[in-house]
């Protein structure tokens, strides 16, 4: 049975992913990026994504940040990305870009973003917020539509 809180997680994962094909050098670079970051690094990355997304006109009214917050987040994530690409994972990224081109960087960072989001979702308050969707989903109807029992 597909639980409503699982639906929220699936929707979020779909938003963060645009390909499901794993290629060896991309996989190696993705693993390196993930293994070379800690929880604090991944939280900084998610904060940066959140701040960037909050600039969209349809979302900007729901969140506020100061230019100083934005600047600090850009500084921290800029240092993180530089460290990852120029030091920690330089050989893996070089091989991946050589084989698949610069656009492959987005695929490697998708994995890191997915891991970071999964970590955030395990926090009880975040999980509870996503579970709020449960009240507004028709579980029986969804199960019938997907053939689940």
**What's the gyration radius in Å?**
18 Å
The tally of strands reads 0
Average pLDDT score: 87
Order of helices and strands: HHHHHHHH
Largest sheet: number of strands, sense, barrel closure? none
Uncertain spans: 18-23
Count helical runs: 8
Oligomer: single chain
Please state the structural category: mainly alpha
What's this entry about, in short?
It is built from eight helices and no strands.
What does this structure look like?
The protein is an all-alpha fold. The protein has one domain (4-19, 31-146). The chain has eight helices and no strands. The chain has helices spanning 4-16, 24-35, 39-53, 67-88, 90-100, 104-121, 124-131, 139-146. Helix 2 packs antiparallel against helix 5 and helix 2 crosses helix 6 (104-121). The longest helix has 22 residues, at 67-88. It is globular and about 50 Å long. The chain starts with a helix and ends with a helix. Residues 18-23 have low confidence and may be disordered.
